[in-house]
Design brief:
Rossmann fold; Ribosomal Protein S5, domain 2; 3 domains; 12 helices; 26% strand
Length: 472
């Protein structure tokens, strides 16, 4: 690279767009104040490579050891069809979110707030896989080996087959990976890795993008599964260019209050499975522990016989999750009533309150409303509508609903109750946890296999819901 000229260019931190001049708004993704200046290299004339940013063509391309002219397109019929090679991570909840286990040769990006448990779950996963006979390498650019050992001792110790490396230089890492040929590699974190061929600082747009490109090449060519830790911004997205999420195969986010014990692992992208599944963990002294029955966990500590408290059910992928909806309705002290919602869409709550005021003549415009989904989980499925409406009615009239009642259904602007998917799964889950009555849409109650001891109450509109509450 000797004799190469250097200059600077501006890159968008959101989408990676490159520009010769700074702009307040990115021309590609329209984000404001995301353009940052970074150095680039220009290869000398006559080399045939033209302008090249970061790594050389030999280290960033996929056609290694041969000419691009030898590559020929193929038809889909000539490709052998088969299931992906998967292996267990040791956590059933993590396997569920990944779509049935980690896929060989895939890149998995794990993001989350500082202290949420990203490094802990990957260290626990590495220990399990090493005990299962999987050759794994744990690479840390943020902690020393002594710090990793202290954390490993806290979660029960690491097996001798698990190898650790503290390194941030990409060239050294690729040499070790190519030599040792592990089946899985953990990178903690991608923002600390750097390449000597890229003239910008670690964590910059160029470094993150080119480093991920090299890891992607290693994963696909050698069949190695990479778990990459990514820091997040204050908005909750992975720091660095948005193109990082497009390059990897799977993007997982750790959610939850770092000061609370629960953690929710949610998939926002998965090329090998669904993105509707979630995994729920509890942070303890010995590390993260799976919550096998999230409905029971979410309903623990629920007040009995209290007005404004209703249990509803939403679907997270194929798993029904029972959640308590709480509503506090109090007279407003100002001209404009206050609407505050925690755990669900505040705009949807305002719409449901407007439906109640219009269709049932309830003067909610004179009351403040505070809606909360207990347990810290965030849900936005339309099936929560009926539970929110009943909680508001219960809080407004100060009438407690039966403790063994569960409610779910979508509410339209005319006050009608619409059916939702997988109604039978919701009823079955409620019956397992001891609920004996279920209010659900009449259009979705047909053909449901009713469990023993469960009574279905089908309704067609919120007027019937109001009549039911009046009889409680």
């Amino acid at each position: 690279m000797a004799g190469n000229k250097r200059k600077t260019a501006f890159f968008c931190q959101e989408c990676g767009y490159e520009s010769a001049k700074w702009a307040g708004q990115c021309p590609a993704c329209k984000a404001w104040n995301t353009m940052v200046e970074e150095p680039v290299r220009i290869s000398p004339a006559g080399t045939g490579t033209g302008a090249k940013r970061g790594l050389s063509a030999a280290s960033s391309g996929f056609a290694l050891g041969g000419s691009n002219h030898s590559i020929k397109p193929v038809s889909l019929s000539s490709i052998e069809e088969g299931e992906e090679t998967r292996f267990s991570t040791g956590f059933g909840e993590l396997d569920r979110v990944l779509g049935g286990g980690a896929v060989a040769g895939s890149l998995v990006l794990v993001g989350g707030d500082p202290g949420i448990g990203k490094s802990t779950i990957l260290l626990q996963t590495s220990c399990y896989m090493a005990r299962s006979g999987i050759k794994i390498l744990y690479i840390s650019g943020e902690e020393s080996l002594r710090q990793i050992k202290l954390r490993a001792s806290r979660i029960g110790g690491a097996p001798d087959d698990l190898r650790f490396l503290c390194e941030t230089n990409l060239e050294i890492i690729t040499d070790i990976v190519a030599r040792d040929k592990p089946q899985a590699v953990v990178i903690d974190s991608i923002q600390t890795m750097y390449s000597d061929e890229v003239a910008s600082a670690p964590g910059s747009v160029s470094q993150v993008r080119e480093t991920t490109a090299v890891l992607l090449r290693l994963a696909k060519e050698m069949g190695i599964t990479f778990f990459i830790v990514g820091h997040v911004t204050k908005e909750g997205t992975v720091a660095g260019p948005r193109v990082l999420e497009h390059m990897v195969d799977t993007v997982l986010y750790f959610e939850g209050d770092r000061y609370a014990s629960y953690r929710i692992l949610r998939g926002v992208k998965n090329r090998f499975g669904s993105t509707n599944e979630i995994g729920i963990f509890e942070m303890r002294k010995e590390g993260l522990v799976e919550v096998l029955n999230p409905s029971e966990y979410m309903l623990s500590g629920r007040p009995l016989g209290a007005s404004g408290s209703v249990v509803t059910c939403s679907m997270e992928g194929t798993r029904p999750v029972l959640t308590e909806v709480q509503a506090l309705i109090v007279p407003t002290s100002f001209g404009h009533p206050r609407r505050q919602s925690t755990g669900t869409d505040a705009n949807r709550v305002s719409v449901l309150m407007a439906v109640l005021e219009k269709r049932l003549n309830i003067p909610l415009s004179q009351y403040d409303a505070y809606i909360n989904l207990a347990g810290g989980i965030r849900q936005t499925e339309p099936a929560l509508d009926l539970g929110i409406v009943l909680a508001i009615l219960s809080g407004f009239r100060n009438i407690a609903v039966p403790d063994d009642l569960i409610v779910f259904g979508e509410v339209g602007l005319s006050g009608e109750v619409r059916s939702v998917s997988m109604a039978e799964n919701r009823v079955q889950e409620a019956a397992k946890l001891g609920f004996h009555s279920c209010i659900l849409p009449a259009s979705g109650a047909k053909g449901i296999k009713v469990p023993d001891g469960m009574k279905l109450i089908p309704i067609r509109g919120i007027g019937q819901l109001s009549e039911y509450l009046a009889e409680c």
